[in-house]
Amino acid sequence: MGFDDRFAYVSGRIWALEDRMVDRAKFNRLIDAGSPEELVRILSETEYGQGREIVPERYEEIIDAELVRVHQLIAELSPDPELTGVFRAKHDFHNMKVHLKSRLVKRDRDMIVREGLGLSQVGWIDPDRLGEYADAIMLEYYPVDEEEEDDPGERDDFVAFDGSDEILATTPLEDAIIDAGHKAVEAYMRHGRDPQYIDFVIDRASYDYFHHVAVSRRAVRLEEIVATMADLTNIQICMRLRAIGKDACFASDVLVPHGTLDAGALLGVYEKPDSEFVAYFRDTPYARLVEDAMNAWLANGSLVALENLAESYLFSKIAPEGEAVVGYETALAYLGARELEADKLRRIFVGKMNKIPPNVIRERLSGAYA
User: Fold this and answer.
1) How far is the C-alpha of 90 from the C-alpha of 313, rounded, in Å?
2) What is the pLDDT averaged over residues 128-138?
3) Full-model pTM
4) How far apart are CA 47 and CA 55, in angstroms?
5) H or E segment at 344?
6) Residue 93: how many CB atoms within 10 A of its CB?
7) Residue 165 — pLDDT band, cuts 50, 70, 90?
8) Smallest Cα–Cα separation from 214: which of 112, 79, 87, 122?
9) What pLDDT, in 10s, does the model give residues 326-355?
10) Distance (Å, rounded) from C-alpha 208 to C-alpha 210?
11) What's 149-213 look like in SS3?
């Protein structure tokens, strides 16, 4: 990593902004709060409370609103918003999954999912616009009812991709998401209308997008981060699927691309005994992580330790301690830290709302801030 003067201003602003984050002491106060009401009082002392009324039941909206503000600020300051905000796109890929699954469940299982449930407001693309893309994709795979044909007014928000005056895709990210949506529905239908395949296909597409942004910018550090993310995701996939008894064939459909771990070799040890599975990682950077996660799994049957270890490992790669960099890396590290901060706050709120003891909540958190 070197010096990139294009990012000098945004790097300087970020160094000042980092001091306003929720620190370890405040996280401990939040965890030890005696009630959800005390929790929101403490949170109101942070940037999450600036100009916002915080009530326990609406914690998701408050957390998302702060993430949106932060992402928008960095995008305005950055000379290359697509690069510095590359991982913001994960929320857009998530929203396409939500839109497609809600529509497919309604079509194939006659179930109604409440509009907007599960959607994130943090991505680059308006969730309603992504809903239009999902509607257009659905029209290509499902015939239109006669009543809909007779009353085009009911379909004013449906837009076809080909042969129409309006071109929906206007950015590389939108193109990537639309393409992923097509492939996801195809996989869903090919695998017996299994909604899991919506997740599998779109998750893989998100890694293709992250990798594409890194390669197109010659952003070596970002390539390394994406590779680490892919490796950690594949490790978690394998351990979770092993735990529920899924075979290697199923796992092969789920693994994400662009990691450093060879997929064939990983699948080769997937169904081996635990000791052989762990031994595969001995000569990789993930040896200690996998060993500790497996020991925790064997001891208590929980994979929470694996999730926490992976989160901590990734954060150490995005924001290596003691490194001061003037470049896009500074923005990546800051935005990654804010996303991690938000995730911890969500876990604390869920714990408090469900009356989980502070020591249990603390055990479920990991990383730099708790």
Assistant:
1) 19
2) 96
3) 0.90
4) 15
5) helix 328-353
6) 25
7) very low
8) 87
9) 899 999 999 999 999 999 999 999 999 999
10) 6
11) HHCHHHHCCCCCCCCCCCCCCCCHHHHHHHHHHHHHHHHHHHCCCCCHHHHHHHHHHHHHHHHHH
